[in-house]
Amino acid sequence: MKDNEIITLEFEKTIAEVEEKIKRLKQVEAGEGIDIGSEVDRLQQKSQRLLKQLYTKLSPWQKSQVARHPNRPHCLDYINGLIDDFEPLCGDRAFADDMAMVGGIGSFRGQSVVVIGQEKGCDLESRVKYNFGMAKPEGYRKAQRLMDLADKFKLPVIAFVDTSGAFPGIEAEERGQAQAIASSIERCLNLKVPFVSIIVGEGGSGGAIAIATANRILMLEHSIYSVISPEGCASILWRSAEKVKEATEALCLTAQDLRRLGVIDEIIAEPLGGAQRDHNEIILRVGDVIARHLKELSVHTGEELKRRRTDKFLKMGRHLAKPE
Amino acid sequence: MNWIADFVRPKIKKATSKEIAENLWTKCPECGQMLFNKELEKDAYLCSYCGHHLRLPLKNRFEMLFDDGKYKQLALPKLVDDPLSFKDSKKYSDRLKAYRRLTKNDDAIMVACGNIGKIKTVVAALDFTFMGGSMGTAVGEGIVKAVDFAIKTTSPLVIISASGGARMQEGILSLMQMARTTAAINLLKEKNIPYISIMTDPTTGGVSASFAMLGDIHMAEKGCIIGFAGARVIEQTIRETLPEGFQKAEYLREHGMVDIVFERTEMKNKLVKILKLLLNKKD
Ligand SMILES: [Zn+2]
User: Fold this and answer.
1) How far is the CA of B47 from the centre of ligand 1 (A)?
2) Residues B152 and B225 in one domain
3) Looking at the complex, does the CB of residue B244 fall below 8 Å from at least one CB of chain A?
4) A22 with A72, same domain?
5) What number is the ipTM of this complex?
6) Are residues A208 and A90 in the same domain?
């Protein structure tokens, strides 16, 4: 992904103008051999300054847009960047192969692992192919089947979470979307191997937690994780699509909110201007953090890992009121 | 209910607004008949014209289930209210106060224990009248405590769901209750203690996608709505009309998600029969 191909978000307009100027100057330079290097340098510094100003204080709504940025690295980008010898595995052994739920085996820094995750796709064609990262029951059953495999061969599980939610449709309901998600959460809890989940973009509700009930839950700096989409929340509680910013703030869905609430274990810092601006850098950072957590978890027995995961979730959101 | 009712009783299709305001009548959502509230309560909230199962208040259901209508309610630990300081058009903390006044309950769950067919049983039930039975941290706490108590007393657990899903006003903490309640149910399963999930109208969203769908046996009240996504969301996504009976209990049974669809009048007998068979108990 080259810098100049990145889609500009609405709140990034000032930066886009500066970047456009740089692009034009570079074209002139290339075409006519005039030295305007110092002007380019000045503008580049300006754009970095603007990026820093913007990205150090993104509002929750702006973070939601960054989390859903189409140029952000998606599940398959992380797999390609981090997993050697990756072999995609297909199907739930009952109904179909759900493309929205990617899964397979491969080697992560010398250790065989099972990888699962939702893939959103990066252009119109691939988005349709991966159903926009919205898995159906067969996707959640595929995830369970791969977790069975991980348990059997004692392979750690890495999950890349990036979905707006489980697919809402007639056939998904008929095949038991609710049951598939419930049993996927149950399967996560029963794993006897180290299990790390990373919210790389959007962690959408039940469709996300189905593969995020892990020993360690990590979030990228500008990712979001929520019980309902800001849009859905605005339309239900405010009865107005225009209240989406208010809903986003109220939901406390940023990585920083979730860390404060004790839901996640670590925030992975993104490169300046978001993961979409430097794929290699964020993929490397994610890899380093996963490696550290897997190493920490590897000292425990399978039974301990399961018990610790269970204890972690039994306490989730349990804040006792002070006696009156 | 009574086939003869159709022609020996005059149909009442309308009540004055004053009468409705005085809480004398309820309109059957299925056939539109006006039902006299006092009779409705006596009839276990079944429409005397079409047999439609209206929502049954928790206390009435407990009285129907437990032997001689006797049970002990378990006190639940009090959690921090409104952990996110959530506010939409109203403050969540104010909503909580209003629902507590209305339902005389702390949140959308009640846990009780007592004998059902002479078998000591723990029952947790969600209250739809309390914010649509939505699951936040307090409901999660109730399920965890119900499981604890069932394990401690080696009693079967019955959870009666009636919920629109997660409590949005508790944000991510409500989503976490899906994993939390599932973790609790897991502990029960490890002890081989029976867990019967009874789904009533409605059982959707985060509740259906966690403990409600993880029972040893799934029972569903006739005609109730069970599903993950709301029908409206599905219609908007796929822009198709939904099939007849979509997401009804019978449809779920047909698609392999529910074992037993029961009429309310046979709820207790069915449950007792199942508990006795699972526990290999003779009279
Ligand atoms: Zn009726």
Assistant:
1) 5
2) yes
3) no
4) no
5) 0.95
6) yes
- Residues A178 and A53 grouped into a single domain: no
Please count the structural domains in chain A: 2
Which residues from chain A sit within 8 angstroms of residue B256, using beta carbons? 176
Percent pLDDT > 90 in chain A is: 84
Minimum mean pLDDT among A112-116, B8-12, B14-18, B139-143: which range?
B8-12
- When mean pLDDT is compared across B95-109, B229-243, B260-274, the lowest value belongs to B229-243
B142 with B71, same domain?
A: yes
pLDDT in tens, A27-72: 876 666 667 778 888 989 999 999 999 999 999 999 999 999 999 9
**pLDDT (0 to 100) of residue A4:** 47
- Which domain, by its residues, includes B5? 1-54
Residue ranges making up the domain that contains A246? 64-314
- What's B133's domain CATH number? 3.90.226.10
- Indicate whether A201 belongs to any domain: yes
Q: What is the 3-state secondary structure (H, E, C) of chain A?
A: CCHHHCCCCHHHHHHHHHHHHHHHHHHHHHHHCCCCHHHHHHHHHHHHHHHHHHHCCCCHHHHHHHHCCCCCCCHHHHHHHHEEEEEECCCCCCCCCCCCEEEEEEEECCEEEEEEEECCCCCHHHHHHCHHHCCCHHHHHHHHHHHHHHHHCCCCEEEEEEECCCCCCHHHHHCCHHHHHHHHHHHHHHCCCCEEEEEEEEEEHHHHHCCCCCCEEEEECCCEEECCCHHHHHHHHHCCHHHHHHHHHHHCCEHHHHHHCCCCCEEECCCCCCHHHCHHHHHHHHHHHHHHHHHHHCCCCHHHHHHHHHHHHHCCCCCECCCC
pLDDT at A27: 80
B:137-196 residues touching chain A, CB 8 A cutoff:
137, 140-141, 144, 166, 168-180, 182-187
